[in-house]
Amino acid sequence: MEISIFLAKFWGWFFVTFFILLLIYPKRIKQMFQFAKDDKFMILISIMAIIIGLVNIVAHNIWVKDWRTIITLFGFFSLAKGISQFAFPGFAWNWMEKIDFKWFQFLLFLLLIIGVLLLNQAYQWVPF
Q1: Given a cut of 80, is residue 94 above it in pLDDT?
Q2: Domain residue spans of the chain
């Protein structure tokens, strides 16, 4: 359970911090999409996603019917994202071009909610 709490704090704070930073600096969203066109940047990001995904999966491959499954799913999502970006950069770029700003904002808001829920599970602010 210790690793679940640690990863809930990690992913929770990551999502909340990422949301707040992009809320304060919205021009970074456009810059991220521009950086994704650079092959060197895409390779670096894909390697980081593969590493984060593998570490998350090796440390936390738990499939139960509670909040801990969300953490495992983020590990698998990160690994799949990294592999797809590394192996198929054109596909990854085409997928990113199809996401408009409103969908990106919706995804960010969804990640904020998931981040707050994970932080709540880690810190037990509101028990449920």
Answers
A1: no
A2: 2-123
